[in-house]
Design a protein that fits this description.
Among the domains are: 1-20 and 31-193, Serine Threonine Protein Phosphatase 5, Tetratricopeptide repeat; 327-437, Leucine-rich Repeat Variant, CATH 1.25.10.10. Helix 19 (328-339) runs antiparallel to helix 20 and helix 21 (360-372) packs antiparallel against helix 22. The protein is mainly alpha-helical and 437 residues long. The radius of gyration is 31 Å and the shape is flat. It contains 25 helices and no strands. It has helices at 4-18, 31-44, 48-61, 68-85, 89-109, 116-132, 139-147, 154-167, 169-182, 186-197, 204-214, 218-230, 235-244, 248-260, 264-276, 280-291, 298-308, 312-324, 328-339, 344-357, 360-372, 376-388, 392-404, 408-418, 424-436.
Length: 437
């Protein structure tokens, strides 16, 4: 299960180095600058033992330096990373206890430092690992962080709640639910939704449904729908939401959530919407997600809808979805469309998606279509599709058209697409044409 903390740590690292490293030392450079640079370079290169040495020396020798708070943070961070790199359980715990002690020093001496929030977040991560290692006394850092008043350190509180969920869900869940329902900042509510959505508790899906229906902000409602789609327990709530919602944008998010929710019921719902929703745009969205489905019934369902529909715009959407599927049955149906009595616009669409599938068999299919189709527009699309096919057979047929086609426009098209190829055979053919002139 992905943790919010991991995302936070990655972001912190990016921000820390975005400010840039000090200039490299030279003759007459300040030893403190050189040591600070060595520490940052070691962190950047993930040389954790070296980083511990450099930052430890800086903290010891430069305690009055304005960068001491940052150095203490990176020392604690490097101790934690060095601990992770060792397989010795006792040494891991000892290094993390040292890291907590360094953070305590930072917070005591530099309470108002810009590094204080980062340090509290790191202390929570360390405390969680130490508790799991049997050091129960460190749980207080997680609990106190989770129970802190909402304020400037709300992100610390959320990280603490994420950790507390793993230790004491009964204590963490009510706090998270209160933030989700009552916090005035939509971004904080959305972050809290993420934290709670990672926890397997029967109350989570109904809460997400409540927020999707009632939150004042569209972004938060959409986030609730997204996390319902990732939840194994969320499908029933999503079905209710789709039936009750009048907000098209939210319904589009629900369609995506259906596509993420594995199972027969979600696929059936997408089919139902694609076949008969009064909103044409929502039908098209449902068709798109069916095309991304791995359900074995998807090709047959799309083919049935194609035959049952008279609207060419919707038929194009169905062809697109068939083109997305890895299905021989679907590809064969595209060939039917391309060779049947459909309007040229639909034939061209089918030809395009056959071309995108690549392979010698599909190149052969395009060749047969070209030789059996009298429409100039469709033949032009076939030539383009052959140029997109990655097999030698496709290039060979383009060369044959360029040499033998009687229609000058089609011959020009074939030559143009040959010119887009980087093959030696194509280059030789073009050179021959130039020499003839």
């Amino acid at each position: 299960m992905k943790s919010l903390k991991k995302t936070v740590w990655a972001l912190l690292m990016l921000l820390a180095f975005a400010a840039g490293l000090p200039a490299a030392g030279g003759a007459g450079s300040d030893p403190a600058d050189d040591l600070f640079l060595s520490g940052k370079n070691a962190v950047h290169d993930k040389q954790w033992q070296a980083a511990v040495t450099h930052w430890g020396k800086f903290v010891e020798e430069q305690s009055r330096d304005p960068r001491a708070a940052e150095a203490l943070y990176w020392l604690a961070y490097s101790l934690n990373q060095a601990a992770a790199a060792t397989g010795d359980f006792a040494r891991q715990a000892a290094a993390r206890e040292q890291a907590v002690a360094r953070i305590e020093t930072l917070l005591e001496r530099f309470e108002n430092s810009s590094w204080a929030t980062d340090a509290r977040m790191l202390r929570i991560e360390l405390a969680e690992k130490l508790v799991k290692a049997g050091k129960a006394k460190y749980k207080k850092y997680v609990t106190s962080g989770a129970e802190a008043e909402n304020g400037s350190d709300i992100n610390v509180k959320l990280v603490a709640l994420d950790a507390l969920l793993q230790m004491d869900a009964e204590k963490a869940l009510p706090i998270l639910k209160r933030i989700i329902r009552e916090n005035k900042d939509k971004n904080i509510r959305a972050k809290a939704l993420f934290v709670i959505s990672q926890h397997d508790d029967p109350s989570v899906a109904p809460l997400l449904g409540e927020i999707a229906r009632k939150d004042a902000d569209p972004y938060v409602r959409e986030q609730a729908v997204f996390w319902l789609g990732q939840s194994g327990e969320g499908l029933g709530v999503l079905l209710e939401l789709y039936a009750a919602s009048l907000d098209r944008k939210l319904k589009e998010k629900i369609l995506f959530a259906f596509s993420q929710s594995e199972g027969e019921a979600s696929f059936r719902k997408l089919l139902e919407i694609a076949k008969g929703d009064p909103d044409l745009e929502l039908r098209e969205k449902a068709l798109f997600w069916i095309g991304q489905s791995e359900d074995e019934k998807a090709p047959a369902a799309l083919m049935e809808m194609y035959r049952a529909n008279a609207d060419n715009g919707l038929k194009k959407k169905i062809i697109f979805s068939l083109g997305q599927l890895e299905s021989d049955q679907g590809t064969a149906f595209l060939k039917e469309i391309a060779t049947g009595n459909s309007p040229d616009s639909l034939k061209e669409e089918a030809v395009f998606w056959i071309g995108q599938k690549g392979g010698e068999a599909n190149a052969g299919m395009l060749k047969a279509l070209y030789e059996g189709n009298a429409s100039l527009a469709v033949k032009e699309k076939i030539l383009f599709s052959l140029s997109q096919n990655d097999s030698p057979a496709a290039l060979k047929y383009l060369l044959a058209v360029a040499r033998g086609e009687k229609n000058p426009e089609l011959r020009k098209k074939a030559i143009f697409w040959i010119g887009q190829s980087d093959s030696e055979e194509a280059a030789q053919f073009l050179q021959q044409l130039i020499d003839q002139d």
